[in-house]
Write a structure and sequence with these properties.
The complex is a heterodimer of chains A (360) and B (360). Chain A folds into two domains: 223 residues, Rossmann fold (3-Layer(aba) Sandwich), CATH 3.40.50; 115 residues, Nucleic acid-binding proteins (OB fold (Dihydrolipoamide Acetyltransferase, E2P)), CATH 2.40.50. Helix content of chain A is 23%, strand content 34%. Chain A has eight helices and 21 strands. In chain A, the strands form four sheets. In chain A, strands 6-7-8-3-9-10 form a six-stranded mixed β-sheet, with helices on both faces. In chain A, strands 13-12-11-14-20-21 form a six-stranded antiparallel β-sheet. Chain A has a five-stranded antiparallel β-sheet with strand order 15-19-16-17-18, with no helix packed on it. In chain A, strand 20 and strand 21 form a beta hairpin. In chain A, helix 2 packs across helix 3 and helix 2 runs parallel beside helix 4. The two termini of chain A are 42 Å apart. The mean pLDDT of chain A is 90. Chain B is an alpha+beta fold and 360 residues long. In chain B, a hairpin with a 5-residue loop joins strand 4 and strand 5. The longest helix of chain B has 32 residues. Chain B starts with a helix and ends in a 5-residue tail after the last helix. Classes of the chains: A alpha+beta (360), B alpha+beta (360). Chains A and B meet through strand 6 and helix 2 of A and helix 10 and helix 11 of B.
Chain lengths: 360, 360
């Protein structure tokens, strides 16, 4: 066990349930103290992967290595991990204090040490006034804290969170998001967090792992994923509102879109192939008097005050979402001009709709 | 008291805006009262009959209250039944029969036994008083007045021992079987469940002989354990508990596994407390089964009177030529008391168990 050994390593992890392959060979290395978020659409295998790490399921093949030690054959309890479940899974017949101390009692820890850790965790999470209550008498947010507290007291090598905020209402989710991030700063533990919400991923993660169909699509810091998506799936998954995709073809260094627009694009390697242009809604400019690179019809719009979302369509039916950081007067059915900056273009083409390298 | 009245006069509709007494209320109350009567009347009849003197029972006196004909020691005639003679002029005298009972019999006044006169049957009616026949209870319990062979306290102890031991063993091993069938994945899980439930189709009288040989071979014949052990595994109990345990979320068990709880500890600390409502139901059933069991204890324990249970003991009052109904009824009432107390005590857990479930 060396200082530089990663907190967790996955090597060629595969998992099948019967004839169905759920995870197809995942390789991943997570550094000590890192906050890693697994994100992907439902059914992408992110929760399965977390359960494999936790030891609740066994991988079909591949190695799980925690701090340099292969743990495939080690039961869940002895891996030094703790997990926060989606439903919290608090023991309903025990008080909050008993819920927190149950795991430590199982380890035959001394009573004084148990009390010390439980009190410290309760204070950290501000649940010390709830210790005598049962989970049934707590609100959703309080239960969430107790569930996190139960994970903290074991002082684990790695924290695992399985969609912990999905049962909370929007306001509370925002608050808990901040609190979990603060907790990570305070504790400095390695955390692995599973969610389907890309906003949670973007706001909390040191590194995001985007999964689809049991494969890792891309691993990287939130803004790396946003600015340099490796393929069309990641580009579409990260960012809200979603990136616009327009079909077209690359001819040398000239992009010809199906909707009629023709632009020179700074691709690193000239070629001739069908491509998809990806352009973020905020990278598009609007001219109300109809000037601009191309004209579109306003189908719908949302005025949020600080931001305006405009949902428009090309004559060939392709849609384009525009995000403006200001208020502008609009009516439905109005024709407006939009302007593009080729420097903000993403081009996806070839096998797996991979991003084509650009000269920036 | 006022709460009881409010409860018993509730009508359809919400509790704060109850409607007037309508047809559906009438039908509901009629149905409920009918059910109460069906269950309560035989019990009350037994209780009321058990305090009637032996002679009232032997005469099939169907009046509710315990009336008995007065008897008095008459000089020269011995203990005689007292009648009241109503003369045609309306005067009443207490008399006893001085000869055999006929349409017109010889009677003698109590005040002056020598003054025998004739009285027709219509002018005589029994002189009765109301008396609670406590001797029905005290004779067998205190082993007096010819009831020295009825070892009440021994029978009671045997019954209690059989019931408690069988119920405890039933609860523990049925819960273990149910836990395995509900929460572990293994080949043949459903087959085993169905096999266990299928044994419900076999009436106990069919396996009586083979069960006898089993008990004989294991040397439990004539011992209370011969009653306790064969009754411990009940298909009803396994099925009941399994169905209830299926509703305990798997995440709770996984959380306990992450909390380093052994499977045994999960069973005792998580599954058993959460199954309390179902366990209470099974406990009530088991207590009733074992307490009221007659045929099987009779077969196993017949050889040793010191091992008899209360239910076998009751057969002592029924001889070849006469039946001491007053003792049978009184001891039946006594044997109802423990089971009633058990039910009152356990039914609390059925409701509190449901109320404390903390998961949504």
């Amino acid at each position: 066990m060396t200082e530089t050994a990663p907190a967790l390593e996955l090597r060629q992890i595969r998992k099948s349930f019967g004839a169905v392959d759920v995870i197809h060979g995942v390789d991943l290395s997570i550094r000590e103290g890192e906050f890693v978020v697994f994100v992907g659409p439902s059914g992408c295998g992110k929760s399965t992967l977390l359960r494999l790490i936790a030891g609740l399921d066994d991988p079909t093949s591949g190695d799980i290595v925690i701090k340099g030690k292969r743990v495939n054959a080690i039961p869940a309890a002895e891996r030094g991990l703790s997990m926060v479940f989606q439903s919290y899974a608090l023991y309903p017949h025990m008080s909050v204090r008993q819920n927190l101390s149950f795991g430590l009692e199982n380890l035959r820890m001394e009573r004084a040490e148990i009390d010390r850790r439980v009190d410290a965790a309760a204070k950290l999470l501000q649940i010390d006034h709830l210790m005598a209550r049962r989970p049934g008498q707590l609100s959703g947010g309080q239960r969430q804290r107790v569930a996190i507290g139960r994970a903290i007291v074991r002082e684990p090598v790695v924290f695992l969170f399985d969609e912990p905020l999905s049962n909370l209402d929007a306001e509370l989710r925002l608050q808990m998001r901040v609190e979990i991030s603060q907790l990570h700063d305070q504790l400095g533990n390695t955390m692995i967090y599973v969610t389907h919400d890309q906003v949670e991923a973007m706001t909390m993660a040191d590194r995001i792992v985007v999964l689809r169909g049991g494969r890792i699509e891309q691993v990287g810091a939130p803004l790396d994923l946003y600015n340099h998506p490796a393929n069309r799936f990641v580009a579409g998954f990260i960012g809200a509102p979603q990136m616009n995709f327009l079909k077209g073809a690359l001819d040398g260094r000239t992009l010809r879109l199906d909707s009629g627009m023709v632009r020179d694009v700074p691709v690193a390697q000239a070629g001739s192939l069908p491509v998809t242009l990806g352009v973020r809604p905020e990278a598009i400019g609007v001219s109300l008097d109809g000037h601009g690179d191309v004209q579109v019809v306003v189908k719908n719009f949302e005025q949020l005050g600080s931001v305006t979302y405009i949902y428009t369509a090309f004559p060939n039916g392709e849609t384009l979402t525009v995000q403006l950081p200001r208020q502008i007067p609009l009516t439905r059915g109005q024709t407006i001009g939009v302007t593009f900056d080729a420097a903000s273009f993403h081009l996806f083409g070839g096998e797996g709709d991979r991003a084509l390298p650009m000269n920036r | 008291m006022s709460r009881a009245i409010t409860f018993l006069t509730r009508t359809r509709g919400s509790f704060d805006r109850a409607e007037r007494f309508g047809i559906s209320d009438f039908l509901a109350y009629a149905y409920l009262i009918f059910g109460v009567l069906i269950i309560l009347v035989p019990v009350l009849w037994t209780v009321m009959s058990s305090i009637k003197p032996q002679r009232a029972l032997d005469n099939f006196d169907t009046r509710v209250l315990p009336y008995a004909q007065v008897q008095q020691e008459v000089p020269g005639r011995g203990l005689r039944d007292v009648f009241i003679h109503t003369a045609p002029d309306g005067t009443e005298t207490e008399v006893v029969r001085a000869g055999p009972a006929r349409a017109v019999s010889d009677v003698a006044p109590l005040d002056d036994p020598a003054a025998v006169f004739q009285a027709p049957r219509e002018e005589l009616r029994p002189a009765e008083d109301m008396r609670v026949a406590v001797e029905n209870y005290l004779d067998p319990i205190l082993q007096r007045n010819g009831q020295e062979n009825f070892a009440f306290w021994r029978y009671l102890w045997n019954s209690v021992f059989v019931t408690v031991a069988a119920t405890v063993i039933t609860l523990v091993i049925n819960a273990m079987a149910a836990f395995a069938l509900a929460k572990y994945q293994f080949r043949g899980r459903l087959t085993f469940t169905l096999l266990i439930v299928a044994t419900l189709l076999i009436p106990s009288s069919i396996i009586l002989v083979s069960l006898f040989f089993v008990v004989w071979t294991f040397g439990m014949f004539g011992s209370l354990w011969g009653v306790i052990i064969p009754a411990a595994a009940t298909p009803t109990g396994v099925f009941l508990l399994r169905q209830y345990m299926l509703t305990i979320p798997d995440e709770l068990l996984e959380a306990a596994r992450m909390d380093a709880a052994s499977e045994w500890r999960i069973f005792w600390r998580i599954v058993m407390p959460l199954s309390l409502p179902a366990l209470s139901v099974l406990a009530i059933l088991s207590v009733i089964w074992r307490w009221n069991d007659f045929l099987w204890p009779l077969i196993v324990l017949i050889s040793d009177p010191r091992q008899h249970t209360l239910q076998i003991g009751l057969t002592q009052f029924s001889g070849e030529f006469d039946t001491n109904l007053h003792y049978v009824l009184a001891m039946t009432v006594v044997s109802l008391i423990p089971i009633t107390l058990v039910f009152v005590w356990l039914q609390r857990f059925i409701t509190t168990g449901i109320a404390t479930t903390g998961l949504k």
